[in-house]
Q: What sequence folds into this?
């Protein structure tokens, strides 16, 4: 029965085609859903949650300048300047690049030790966006690095035994006591740890320490 054989072969082809279409639609829907979720996190300033989702979209059919721009911003706010520079480098040469793209790219370059290249992009920011206050401020103070170098001889920074890689700022002497209070995200509390979705670091808290001898303090509590 040749006609039956041809019929079944055609049905198999149709079945394979339908399966391929369904797989493509499922994949496309999955990518669109992932993009919506990434945008939701981004709009909530949950950059640490948005970044990996945008990263998975790069190279797919959903990839575009907007995705790269948001991914670059995520990395910038998370303090990952290497990846931020990487994606901003693709954006700043696009016609849709904004003054914020120029500025963040320049700052990422500076953080990565590329000060001369950073200054080039601050000049470009000032030329393309002449009313941007950041470009105007840079134009008025182009010698800021040499000025800092000149003044650095007047100051000495000493690390204390209680310094850590975490964020530590706002030191205040407790009135009438040999104690210092700081604000930090070191997250050493015995309670349940809660991380900030901005960059996955622990929330800020107050810590106190007392001086044991000159330039030496007991560990923060």
A:
């Amino acid at each position: 029965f040749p006609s039956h054989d041809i019929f079944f072969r055609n049905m198999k082809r149709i079945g394979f085609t339908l399966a391929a279409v369904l797989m493509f639609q499922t994949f496309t829907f999955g990518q669109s859903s992932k993009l919506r979720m990434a945008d939701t996190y981004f709009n909530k300033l949950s950059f640490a949650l948005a970044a990996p989702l945008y990263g998975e979209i790069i190279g797919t059919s959903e990839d575009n300048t907007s995705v790269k721009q948001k991914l670059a911003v995520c990395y910038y706010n998370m303090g990952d300047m290497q990846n931020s520079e990487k994606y901003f480098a693709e954006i700043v040469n696009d016609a849709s690049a904004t003054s914020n793209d120029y500025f963040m790219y320049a700052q990422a370059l500076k953080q990565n030790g590329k000060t001369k290249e950073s200054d080039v992009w601050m000049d470009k920011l000032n030329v393309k966006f002449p009313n941007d206050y950041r470009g105007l401020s840079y134009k008025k103070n182009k010698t800021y690095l040499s000025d800092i170098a000149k003044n650095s001889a007047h100051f000495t920074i000493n690390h204390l035994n209680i310094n850590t890689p975490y964020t530590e700022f706002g030191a205040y002497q407790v009135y009438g006591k040999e104690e210092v209070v700081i604000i930090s995200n070191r997250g050493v509390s015995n309670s349940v740890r809660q991380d900030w979705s901005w960059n996955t670091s622990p929330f800020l808290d107050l810590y106190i320490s007392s001086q044991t001898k000159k330039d030496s303090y007991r560990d923060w509590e």
